[in-house]
Amino acid sequence: MYKRLMLATDGSAHAGRAAEAAIGLMKELPEAEMTIIHVSDKAPSRSELMQAGLNMKAILEADAHKAIAETEKLFQQARVPYELKVAFGNPADVIVEWSQNNHTDMIIIGSRGLNAVSEVIMGSVSRKVLHQANCPVLIVKK
User: Fold this and answer.
1) Residues 7-24: what's their mean pLDDT?
2) For the chain, is the Cβ count within 10 Å smaller at the N or the C terminus?
């Protein structure tokens, strides 16, 4: 049923709980494939771009590995294989688009549990993904 799973993570503690849930699912679904996606909405500085020889992908990958080091460590310790994808843009939009283009069967994402006022003002990536995705979304809360 679930062959292609995707963990959307920013490396936060909330995303760490989602990573633990994703690992648990992968152990129950040994034939499934896991993709971890990290989307940055922060543009690299001019000096970062110059140091990387204008290679934005290299910057995004380096930033992703720093941000999700604990998540990668969890997956490696659990011996759960994964593929890392990095992207730049609006996190919710990129996550949904990537999941649709790659026929993801389930998205796993953490939630900070913003209160109603904060969510209206700031928005919520997990909420946007839930409403826009065309596959099941597992939101892991506190």
Assistant:
1) 92
2) N
Average confidence score pLDDT of the chain: 85
Total domains present in the chain? 2
Cα torsion 104, 106, 110, 114 to 10°: value is 100
Percent of all residues in the chain with a pLDDT value above 70, rounded to a whole number: 80
Q: In the beta sheet, which residues pair with residue 98?
A: none
**Six-digit token pair at 63?**
């930033």
Q: Which of 26, 20, 24, 36 shows the shortest CA–CA distance to 3?
A: 26
Residue in 141, 139, 137 with CA at minimum distance from that of residue 96: 137
Q: Which helix (H) or strand (E) holds 119?
A: helix 116-122
Q: How far apart are CA 5 and CA 99, in angstroms?
A: 9
Query: Strand 4-8's sheet: what is its strand order?
Result: 83-88, 33-40, 4-8, 106-110, 137-140
Q: From the CB of residue 114, how many other CB atoms can be counted at a distance below 10 Å? A: 15
Range of the structural domain that residue 72 is part of? 42-82
